[in-house]
Design a protein that fits this description.
By secondary structure, this protein is α/β, with parallel strands linked by helices. The protein is built from ten helices and six strands. It has a six-stranded parallel sheet, sandwiched between helices. Helix 2 runs parallel beside helix 3 and helix 9 packs across helix 10. The radius of gyration is 17 Å and the shape is globular.
Length: 206
């Protein structure tokens, strides 16, 4: 069973999310906090039993989600759960290596499915459909020397496809997809999928 932590300053949100998550047999909420400072203190106590994934709100008192992510030292994966469709915040947070940015008004089942996908695959970055739509509105021809195929692969990564799924879509091998991603990382000067998406959004490539 995967362990989950919820960080949000609204008690009703924490309680609601915890109930939704705990209803899944593969997930268990082991801790919650109302802001980043409280969360850091709790994680310190949980050193031998850290959560596998942390759900974090962006706007919180004392220490917000961005400050928390910059401060925390953990191997736990992190997904942002927010009410804000903020392009700059998405870019900033993805560049910090988060595993997803979801909106709170997502269907509860979709939130849980995204949590499970992130936990089960290092290839998966969870982005709400509305976030992807906002990204696509600003698409431009600024390609940073990326080929059409590389841009296509980047778009699929942003849409949450794994290497295996991209391979099936492009009728190629998973090994070829990994090679494309290695070239993309080099051209964008990044080291992982989340950072690649962040740069692509910032440069209006996808």
């Amino acid at each position: 069973m995967y362990k989950v932590m919820v960080i949000d300053d609204h008690p009703i949100v924490r309680k609601g999310l915890s109930g939704i998550i705990d209803s899944n047999e593969n997930l268990e909420v082991i801790a919650s906090a109302s802001d980043g400072i409280e969360a850091l203190a709790i994680l310190e106590k949980l050193q031998d039993d850290l959560p596998d994934i942390i759900l974090v709100d962006v706007l919180m008192p004392r220490m917000n989600g961005i400050e928390f992510i910059k401060t925390v030292k953990t191997v736990s994966k992190i997904i942002i759960l927010s009410t804000e469709i903020d392009r700059y915040a998405v870019v900033n947070l993805l560049s910090l290596g988060i595993s997803g940015y979801l909106l709170k008004d997502e269907a509860p089942n979709d939130i849980v499915k995204n949590i499970e996908k992130v936990l089960n695959s290092d290839d998966y970055v969870a982005l709400s459909t509305e976030i992807i739509d906002e990204i696509n509105k600003n698409k431009s021809k600024n390609q940073l020397n990326l080929s059409d195929r590389q841009i296509e692969v980047l778009g699929m990564v942003a849409n949450g496809l794994t290497n295996k799924q991209i391979g099936k879509e492009l009728f190629t091998t998973e090994r070829t997809v990994k090679a494309h991603l290695t070239e993309i990382y080099t051209l964008l000067n990044v080291s992982n999928r989340a950072q690649a998406i962040a740069v692509a959004i910032k440069k209006n490539i996808i």
